[in-house]
Amino acid sequence: MALSKRITGLTGGGSDGWDVYYKAKEMMDAGEDVAMLTIGEHDIGTDDSILDAMHAATKAGHVGYSMFNGNLNLRETVAERVTARTGVATTPDNVLVVPGGQAGLFAAHHAACDEGDRALYIDPFYATYPGTIRAVGAQDVAVAARPERMFQPAPADIAAAAAEGAKSLLINTPNNPTGAVYGRETLEGIARVCQEHDMWLISDEVYDTQLWEGDHLSPRMLDGMAERTLVIGSLSKSHAMTGSRIGWVVGPEEAISHMGNLSTHTTYGVAGFVQEAACYALAKGDAFEAQVAAPFRRRRDLVLGLLEGQDVVRPIPAQGAMFVMLDVRATGLSGEEFALRLLDRHKVAVMPGESFGRAAAGHVRVALTVADDRLGEALARLVEMASDLAGVAA
């Protein structure tokens, strides 16, 4: 029996760019000691108190069906959080609870796009973006953010792509994989393009608590944007709850209502005990979120310090998120070639920039997700190999 073109075409064919990760996992399974700097997974588990709250919620009976669009107490909690942080009045009717940010991206694109519509996104991109767009039957169209602009997207480039027709634009700030935080000028330019071309803006803000430089500005705060912006949020990064699969979409009431209908026909809601744990986690406040983020700030500074005094491996100034993007083009290798050689020779696993699109070719992404001393050792090996390839002293 033939499978649908939509399901077989999700990845676009060819390599999905994760060959280095798969090879590193195989080496680790075989007992080799590999410094795994690939995946954005905290090296701490979910806090015990959150797990205790989740367990208590199961014992209290929150194990049956939940509200398909999210239980009222969690939607109220998220609405209060968003209002306090952005100054944009937000009610529970503006909030849809979803099983993680990925489900939010899927729902948002369903709300914004019909079959065959063009949906824009910024390259470099998180790996699931193109497939998510294809999954709703839309055409995925990448708009490059160039390294010479520190991966800040140029509104003029977005406008050029939108001029050919587009229904939505997906952005991510703080950005995975580059660590770029979009400034006000960039976001105001993006807002103008969305308004001029009557596009939805889908803003992935799951790294909003991991901010090292500048300010996080949600585009929903800009004039005329609340009615055309869908914001994706999650507790995965802010509270180290990746496996709990809990997040939300914030947007106009009508859009959220229809996306609630989508939840009824897809996920059928999120487990009640997870929602109760999410309420507890959010109540722990800013200090707890800063505690979860602190190791990544420290390790980002560690990496930038280790790279001083040489000009072969050039970091993109990581302003946020749990990664540092490194320009290794001086070695003469592609990002994928460099990453594979680093893994084979030095047992250090990093993600090739090409895994995240064409704009990051010749770069590698380092996840700041191992202990400081191990991260330092891995970076020293990386710089040594890069210097040897470039023919200069490390």
UniProtKB/TrEMBL annotation:
Catalytic activity: L-aspartate + 2-oxoglutarate = oxaloacetate + L-glutamate
Keywords: Aminotransferase, Pyridoxal phosphate, Transferase
InterPro entries (UniProt xref): Aminotransferase_I/II_large, AspAT/PAT-like, NHTrfase_class1_PyrdxlP-BS, PyrdxlP-dep_Trfase, PyrdxlP-dep_Trfase_major, PyrdxlP-dep_Trfase_small
EC numbers, comma separated: 2.6.1.-
Highest taxon of the lineage: Bacteria
Main enzyme class: transferase
CDD domains attached to this UniProt entry: AAT_like (cd00609)
Domain Aminotransferase class I/classII large, residue spans: 35-382
Family: Belongs to the class-I pyridoxal-phosphate-dependent aminotransferase family.
Annotated protein name in UniProt: Aminotransferase
Organism, as annotated: Roseovarius atlanticus
Lineage summary: Bacteria, Pseudomonadati, Pseudomonadota, Alphaproteobacteria, Rhodobacterales
